[in-house]
Amino acid sequence: MIRRFQHFINGHSTPPNSGEWIDSINPATGAVWAQIARGNKADVDLAVEAALTASQQPDWRDSAANRSEILHGIADRLDSEHKQLIEIEINDNGKRIREVAAQMAGLGGWYRHFALALAKMEVEELTLDLEGVSAHLELIPYGVIGAITAWNSPLMIAAWKVAPALAGGNAVIIKPSEMASASTVLFAEVLSDVVPDGLINVVTGYGDEVGAEIVDADAVKKVSFTGSEIGGSKVATTAAKHVKPSTLELGGKSPQIVFADADLESAINGVMSGIFLSNGQSCVAGSRLIIHDEIRGAFVERLKEKLDGLHFGNPLREDTDIGPIANEAQFDKILSMVDRARQEGATIAAGGSKKVVPGFENGFFMEPTILENVSPYAEIWRKEVFGPVLCVHSFSNKEEAITLANDSDYGLAAGIWTTDEGFASEIASKIDSGTVYINHYRSVSACAPVGGIKKSGYGRELGPNAIRDFMQEKVIWNGKVGVPDPFAR
Ligand code: NDP
């Protein structure tokens, strides 16, 4: 009997109004392992009503202390129960256990961070340039927030939205990707007795059905979206129609710039982690290697040696280095982009093909791929692959490196590798990107904002303003002296 994951609405598992289900495919085996509810407008309406009611409760909306306590409760529950989420998420997206276990172990921490940050928020007195009045700022919740997430790290992406949104006094409706919804449903179920009904709702289904209905719902007052440029653009268009704000965390084509004086072993590890961890299915994947021409040959050779030692296999095993691509559509897309790159003149330095893994012959495994002779005009250099494909281009001077790095529609993340600290800062200030890493890659913290510029999106998640981003400013003016007659002569 295949396990079914229903919606989670108003504190309860809720069957789909349509009676329809969507198969969830395990990408390691290619087989259906579960089914998720196919949501529609009626399900979204139920969730919106539940979220609206929950968000208006005075002991939630007006009591930061109560919200902080509930967020601590969520954190504690996730600390003790996160292990049951690991296998579920891996069955859905094939990410290997060492990465998923680390993400899940850290899940409670995101909620605890915002519980503590909320407790420190204070009413802000405004310093005015006027006499006879004072003013202070009140922050008020939006009410209902739509949180739309991608399939690569469903629960971590959800945490970045849900934790600050709840801290800000809102209720949320989460729409996970239809490719990887099960862990988000189970997450809500696991929290059912620590979160008041209606504050966290999960409606599963297709983006253009459920996702679009959430964004279109009048009572949803803000949308936080993580996904592709196309999805983000649709969400922003609908949100604009309703004059509701949206935050878009979209794709990237992040450069890794390696200068000749870099600590090469460290740079090699950083480039490997940037593009081959999670099979490159990461928004900050460092997919463009921009490397000084003196060291290019040796660097690529060393990368190839490292790839040769990697072990493909079951993502549930600790000794697996490379699991499957998360779903068949993504697998086909990556392989066809590599094919087109070949036709456009790129040469394959490593990988480039499907990988047949004994015992997992129907899985979506692919060889980590390095492409050389890639033109900066080629599709593979310019478009996000969201897969384990590293494109290499060399430079001879820093101006050329900066131009290559910035010549992109995206601006999410960048890496700089050099042992000269002053030079690194100079280059970092010239890179157009939401994040620049110097001599490491991928750090992420609740204290530092995440987000992109250009077509990588707008708005930020995490960081010092994360809770405020889910609240609206209201100014309260106080007159301190009597009001004079406005028409006095
Ligand atoms: P998609 O844009 O296809 O989907 C993202 C989410 O949006 C899914 O839940 C999807 O539902 C939903 N959706 C799709 N269409 C609509 C719509 N019209 N209205 C509302 N919701 C909709 O992206 P992927 O899931 O393929 O994720 C990969 C992308 O996400 C990559 O581009 C990657 O760079 C980006 N990403 C960005 C991150 C960041 O922080 N910047 C982090 C992680 C990923 P469904 O899938 O069910 O159709």
Structure commentary:
It is a single chain. With 489 residues, the protein is of the alpha/beta class. Helices cover 37% and strands 21% of the residues. It contains 16 helices and 23 strands. The protein has helices spanning 41-55, 58-61, 64-81, 83-93, 97-105, 107-120, 154-167, 182-190, 207-216, 229-241, 264-276, 296-308, 328-343, 379-382, 398-406, 421-430; strands at 3-5, 7-9, 12-14, 21-26, 31-37, 124-125, 133-141, 144-148, 171-175, 200-202, 220-226, 246-249, 255-258, 288-292, 347-350, 369-372, 389-395, 410-411, 413-417, 435-438, 453-454, 457-458, 471-479. The chain has a seven-stranded mixed sheet with strand order 15-16-17-14-13-19-20, with helices on both faces. A six-stranded mixed sheet has the order 10-9-8-11-12-22, sandwiched between helices. A three-stranded mixed sheet has the order 1-5-4, covered by helices on one side. It binds NADPH dihydro-nicotinamide-adenine-dinucleotide phosphate. NADPH dihydro-nicotinamide-adenine-dinucleotide phosphate is lined by residues 148-152, 157, 175-179, 206-208, 211-212, 215, 226-228, 231, 234-235, 249-252, 283, 384, 386, 412. NADPH dihydro-nicotinamide-adenine-dinucleotide phosphate binds next to helix 9 and helix 10.
